[in-house]
């Protein structure tokens, strides 16, 4: 009760209520003005502010939802890419292994082919050498035989008469013919 009476007493001490003027007390007027402005803003702007905040909240939620969906899609694509990468790496390893084994196989084939070619060349060389040796031996035999024959004929010509000489020539020609048949 005392508060009510104090309030009334306070009103009595107010300057004349009939006059209207400016209150120059900045602190008192600003607080009143601010409280009135805030009151009006809260009363009228409450709906607008609430709508703005709700719209902002919905946009943020939609953005989060879209981000989550994009994140999920990105994770799926990443997993697919990892699976493809693993598959490609396995195929590359397989190609590498096959390539190395193919290279080794070709290398061994080339080495074997080279050895065979070298063996054939060695055989051809040996055959050629043997052929040339036989040819040289035959030529030497023929030359020795002809020289021996000429020497024998020279000796016979000086020692024999015509009749004996003709018989010896015929016998030697027969022997010579037989020798040619044997060597051929």
UniProtKB/TrEMBL annotation:
InterPro entries: ATP_synth_b/b'su_bac/chlpt. It is a single-pass membrane protein. It is found in: Membrane; Plastid, Chloroplast thylakoid membrane. GO terms for molecular function: proton-transporting ATP synthase activity, rotational mechanism. Residues 64-98 form a coiled coil. GO terms for cellular component: chloroplast thylakoid membrane; proton-transporting ATP synthase complex. Keywords: ATP synthesis, CF(0), Chloroplast, Coiled coil, Hydrogen ion transport, Ion transport, Membrane, Plastid, Thylakoid, Transmembrane, Transmembrane helix, Transport. Pfam families: ATP-synt_B. It comes from the Eukaryota. The chain crosses the membrane at residues 26-49. In plastids the F-type ATPase is also known as CF(1)CF(0). F-type ATPases have 2 components, F(1) - the catalytic core - and F(0) - the membrane proton channel. F(1) has five subunits: alpha(3), beta(3), gamma(1), delta(1), epsilon(1). F(0) has four main subunits: a(1), b(1), b'(1) and c(10-14). The alpha and beta chains form an alternating ring which encloses part of the gamma chain. F(1) is attached to F(0) by a central stalk formed by the gamma and epsilon chains, while a peripheral stalk is formed by the delta, b and b' chains. PANTHER family: ATP SYNTHASE SUBUNIT B, CHLOROPLASTIC (PTHR34264). F(1)F(0) ATP synthase produces ATP from ADP in the presence of a proton or sodium gradient. F-type ATPases consist of two structural domains, F(1) containing the extramembraneous catalytic core and F(0) containing the membrane proton channel, linked together by a central stalk and a peripheral stalk. During catalysis, ATP synthesis in the catalytic domain of F(1) is coupled via a rotary mechanism of the central stalk subunits to proton translocation. Belongs to the ATPase B chain family. This is ATP synthase subunit b, chloroplastic. It comes from Bienertia sinuspersici. The gene is atpF.
């Amino acid at each position: 009760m005392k508060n009510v009476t104090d309030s009334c007493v306070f009103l009595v001490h107010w300057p004349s209520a009939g006059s209207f003027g400016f209150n120059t007390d900045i602190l008192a007027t600003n607080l009143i003005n601010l409280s009135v402005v805030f009151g009006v803003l809260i009363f009228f702007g409450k709906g607008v502010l609430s709508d703005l905040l709700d719209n902002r909240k919905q946009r943020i939620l939609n953005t989060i939802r879209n981000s989550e969906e994009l994140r999920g899609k990105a994770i799926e694509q990443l997993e697919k890419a990892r699976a493809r990468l693993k598959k490609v790496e396995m195929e590359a390893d397989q190609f590498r292994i096959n390539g190395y084994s193919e290279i080794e196989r070709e290398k061994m084939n080339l080495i074997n082919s080279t050895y065979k070619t070298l063996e054939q060349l060695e055989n051809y060389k040996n055959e050629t050498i043997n052929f040339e040796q036989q040819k040289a031996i035959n030529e030497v035999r023929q030359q020795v035989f002809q020289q021996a024959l000429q020497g024998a004929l020279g000796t016979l010509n000086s020692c024999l008469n015509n009749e004996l000489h003709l018989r010896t020539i015929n016998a030697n020609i027969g022997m010579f013919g037989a020798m040619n048949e044997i060597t051929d």
